[in-house]
Amino acid sequence: FPPQLSPPSGASKWDVRQRVWDELEASGLAEFPRPVHHRIPNFKGSHQACCSIKELDVFNRAREIKVDPDKPLEGVRLAALQARKTLLVPTPRLRTGLFNKIVPPSAATKEILRICATSQGIKEYSVPVGLDAKARVDLVVVGSVAVSEKGWRIGKGEGYADMEYAMMVSMGVVQEDTPVITIVHDCQVVDIAEELLDDHDLTVDYILTPTRIIKTNCRRPKPQGIIWHKVSYEMLEKIPILKSLRYREKQTGKDVTLRDEHSDLADTNTPAALNEKVMAENTRPQTATSSAQIRQHYVENDSLNPRLEGSDVITTVYVGNIPPSLRVSELKCALREFHATPLRLNWQGAQHRAFLDYKDKATAECAVSSLKGLSLGGNTLRVELAKNQRNKGQVEINSQK
């Protein structure tokens, strides 16, 4: 390997990335999209490296394969489609879920399959896979900026591949022995100091280059799930599906305290702490059950807001796709968890929907953002401002269809 790519002692992950990106560009090995800096780099010979996956038993035995959407992995996506395997691709930056499944049209030609393997094809020929879909991934293929022969991997620094894998573990989609493969140029195979690795870093079992197949025999354990104390509020907002997984794991009794949550808990005067207090009061149990509560259209009024009726600023949020098995108490619990407790809840379970009243449009939009991507009872909820008031402050609840 090029001697200039042997990282000096004390080099950081960022130093290793920079040296690899610089070498690919300087040597003429870099391919579109350019420059390769800050990307999983595409390189000359990537298709050849991808094709060698067909020589691996772990590929030939696999029925369901998760492949990252990076350009240098296009050849693996094509090989999976040609072999009629189920191909899952992570959604961009995990904004709308975890996976999309690539579904080529029936009797697709070789040319159509080639398109399906591209970034454009991922957009045109994919369908989202819900949080509760019974996916069982047999093989994981990730891109890398650098990797060592021991299987230690460095990505581009945003942490999405590590998070995707941790989420798959949490969902039961992968097992401890599910193989992980990466595709790189030979010059991306470098020495990586073990002290650079963290417990959330994904390791790889096979490295495919244009000239070699390397079995790493890596002994370092892969992530065992989401490490919540390393997840920030910001990440939770960027990746809505994380909220659903956190809610689920909290229900099973796991500690899901976030990285920056300790400071909130220490200061009871923070907005988050005050919001928790208001939510607890809003949702305190009723001492008696009225006839209205057992009717199909269950309405919960907020005792803290006696002037709610007739208010001209209330903004309503529509919640749809509620599964038949879900109870109003479960929805209320989720609303508390996601800091989205309304002033009033209009439950229409038979119609698989509910309406949430908030004090103003800003609060309602904040609730929509918080609940985006939430999955309850097997369904991803549809959450949006009620139709009649996306552009104004008042809604006629029963007009939502």
TrEMBL record:
Pfam families listed in its UniProt record: 5-FTHF_cyc-lig
Descriptive protein name: Methenyltetrahydrofolate synthase domain-containing protein
RNA-binding found in the keyword field: yes
Keywords, ordered alphabetically: RNA-binding
Source species: Chordeiles acutipennis (Lesser nighthawk)
InterPro entries linked: FTHF_cligase (IPR002698), FTHF_cligase-like_sf (IPR024185), MTHFSD_RRM (IPR034359), NagB/RpiA_transferase-like (IPR037171), Nucleotide-bd_a/b_plait_sf (IPR012677), RBD_domain_sf (IPR035979), RRM_dom (IPR000504)
Ranges where the RRM domain occurs: 315-388
Stored SMART domains: RRM (SM00360)
GO terms of molecular function: RNA binding
PANTHER family, sorted: 5-FORMYLTETRAHYDROFOLATE CYCLO-LIGASE-RELATED, METHENYLTETRAHYDROFOLATE SYNTHASE DOMAIN-CONTAINING PROTEIN
Any one cellular-component term (Gene Ontology): cytoplasm
